[in-house]
Design a protein that fits this description.
single chain, alpha+beta, ten-stranded antiparallel beta sheet, three-stranded antiparallel beta sheet, 7 helices, 13 strands, about 30% strand
Length: about 230
């Protein structure tokens, strides 16, 4: 029993330490690439992360840079057209392991047409559907630019770790006692810290940050506020 507990403790330590310790070690060259806090913005105001440029890099670029294990489908909640997404169930990004979701640029009419040609639809969590594309639509999706990226890291984070790795946020928006958003508009980054669930990192182009991230959050915050 003691041996088993020791193994579990070592595994957990190996997952958590990279977020707290300074970078380094014998595999530094490979382990320090594509890390979540390595974000840059080009001259056109497009953010670059994980070796991809939002609004420019296509799904084919993603496969080439991050691996062929990428799955592609339309993800749709009830009464919604849905969004065209690519995702890795588990992907190493430097020394970080997590689930990566890529939202592609899309037109609602095109998504509807893809749904009509889809091979099958299956339920995921709750009533959300995962819709498998027709091969011809899958080929078209490969040339579609990535609009946004979401990362769910495998380890739980805290505020001290976030500030250490990403710096002080420009703004914090608290939606509940357990859910807080840390906003980095200049980088196009929103970090969702959930004390009772998994954390989420959302990357968009800085020029779209207000409309895609901040404004909807403020609206949700207003709705959640108790009536006076």
């Amino acid at each position: 029993m003691k041996a088993a507990l020791s193994v579990i403790a070592l595994v957990l330590l190996a997952l958590i330490l990279p977020f707290f310790l300074p970078s380094g070690g014998p595999d530094k060259a490979n382990m320090e690439q594509n890390l979540p806090w390595q974000i840059s913005v080009d001259e056109q105001g497009r953010s670059q992360v994980f070796g991809l440029t939002l609004g420019s890099s296509t799904l084919a670029d993603v496969r080439q840079h991050l691996g062929q294990e990428l799955e592609v489908a339309i993800i749709a909640a009830p009464d919604e057209v849905g969004s065209l997404e690519g995702y890795y169930a588990q992907l190493p990004l430097g020394f970080i392991l997590g689930r990566l979701i890529l939202t592609l640029e899309q037109d609602p009419d095109k998504i509807n047409a893809m749904r009509e040609r889809a091979l099958k639809a299956e339920h995921m969590e709750s009533t959300t559907k995962k819709i498998t594309l027709h091969p011809e639509d899958l080929a078209r999706a490969e040339q579609t630019p990535v609009q946004a990226i979401s990362l769910i890291p495998s380890v739980n984070l805290d505020e001290a770790t976030l500030i250490q790795r990403f710096g002080q946020p420009a703004e914090k928006i608290q939606l509940s006692e357990t859910l807080t958003h840390y906003l980095y508009p200049a980088k196009g980054l929103d970090i969702v810290l959930d004390t009772k669930g998994k954390e989420l990192l959302q990357y968009v182009q800085p020029r779209e940050f207000e409309s895609r991230i901040r404004a909807p959050l403020l609206a949700r915050q207003k709705e959640a506020a108790p009536a006076k």
